[in-house]
Design brief:
This protein is an alpha+beta fold. The chain is built from eight helices and 14 strands. A six-stranded antiparallel β-sheet has the order 7-3-4-6-1-8, with no helix packed on it. Strands 9-10-11 form a three-stranded mixed β-sheet, covered by helices on one side. Strands 13-12-14 form a three-stranded mixed β-sheet. The two termini are about 45 Å apart.
């Protein structure tokens, strides 16, 4: 079951026109019962104006009643209300995380004795973004290089996506260190968990109570590891073997370092049944191209520049949508719909063609070619 599939409910009727008409009708009926005379409150009547103001107060009160009641339901709760619901299942909102990266320290020469790279040593790619060591690191005699894990000093996504070689300046000089450079892409930085992700984990929490290794438990524990994780797929290709595929936000594939650390987390004996062999990896990439020609209505020709921008954004949004979920089929119909909504009259799509994607795969765009075919009549 998906929370979004649950029926919408209201705890109070919030139609302001109904409230106003009911208030006037109640007054007219009460007046008749008290006096025996019929009284019509026409527009402009001072009593009707007063009742109108009271109806608006009741409308505001009903809004508060409806909102307050909904905060007791997982589908609608938000903010602090959601955190109180989470407490019933001993789930806490994930704080912001700091990005991490593997950095290679290259020595100017092998040292005759053990040396120490001290805790707090920092490196930077520039722009006041720093990565630091969280522990002292020993360099054995005879070593000429060492790879260490370093963590961004700032929480959030600001430390993500520095590719290999970009973090290459040693902020705190060490005489016997010649060069530094990251060997993989920095990852794992995330903002505080948003309500939607938090709500999903609360919903999955009962799965974690079992020690039988259900699919939902592994999904719950994977998402508990980091709020940077967007999607998780769990399979059992053979008895006792658990294949877990991880996808980060914005369709980003996890690095080997990120996979290693989450594997250690999921393999802990408190989370993994004794007989399970846990394998964690990124989804397999299936490449596709976007090659299309779109046309607009002649009546909209004066707005062609705005439509061009909207179409380009629609294509970019489609590409993000396509890679934001593991196992999502490559669907040109979704692409066409987005372009039509962006102002296109019709679309000729040469690529992509509809392609089924396996539950262990994800679709990544390789080439993009967007052509404007001109304006046409209806």
């Amino acid at each position: 079951m998906n929370l979004s599939n649950l029926p919408d409910i209201e705890f109070a009727n919030k139609d302001v026109e109904t409230i106003i008409s009911d208030t006037i009708a109640y007054y007219e009926e009460a007046y008749f019962e008290q006096t025996g005379n019929r009284k019509k409150l026409y527009p402009g009547d001072p009593i009707r104006i007063f009742l109108y103001s009271q109806a608006l107060r009741e409308f505001q009160l009903r809004q508060i009643i409806d909102f307050s009641a909904k905060q007791n339901l997982l589908k609608y709760a938000k903010g602090d209300y959601l955190e109180n619901l989470a407490a019933l299942r001993t789930v806490e909102r994930l704080p912001s995380n700091k990005a991490s990266v593997n950095v290679k320290f290259k020595l100017s020469a092998a040292q005759p004795t053990i040396q120490t790279i001290p805790i707090g040593t920092r490196v930077t790619p520039g722009n006041d973004i720093l990565f630091e060591l969280l522990d002292d690191i020993e360099v054995l005699s005879g070593q000429t290089e060492i790879i260490v894990k370093m963590v961004c000093t700032l929480p959030g996504k600001i430390g993500n996506d520095f590719t290999a070689g970009q973090i290459n300046t040693l902020v705190d000089p060490i005489p016997w260190i010649d060069k530094v450079a990251n060997i993989d892409t920095s990852q794992g930085g995330s903002d505080e968990e948003d309500d939607n992700s938090f709500r999903e984990r609360i919903y999955l929490a009962p799965e974690s109570y079992s020690v039988a290794g259900p699919t939902g438990a592994y999904v719950f524990f994977a998402k508990e590891y980091s709020s940077a994780i967007k999607d998780v797929k769990v399979f059992s290709p053979s008895p006792g073997s658990i294949d877990i595929r991880i996808l980060l936000h914005d369709g980003e594939l996890p690095s080997e370092s990120f996979i290693q650390h989450i594997h250690e987390y999921l393999s802990d004996k408190k989370r993994r049944p004794l007989t399970d062999n846990v394998i964690v990896s990124a989804p397999e990439v299936v490449n596709y191209s976007v090659d299309l020609t779109y046309y607009i209505l002649e009546d909209n020709y004066s707005n062609d520049l705005m439509i061009h921008d909207n179409v380009n954004k629609a294509v970019a949004d489609y590409i993000l949508w396509q890679k934001s979920k593991i196992g999502r089929d490559i669907n040109p119909s979704e692409l066409i719909t987005r372009i039509i909504l962006a102002g296109g009259k019709r679309v000729e799509v040469a690529s992509p063609l509809f392609t089924q994607i396996q539950d262990t795969q994800i679709a990544y765009v390789e080439n993009i070619n967007i052509n404007y075919g001109g304006a046409e009549n209806d």
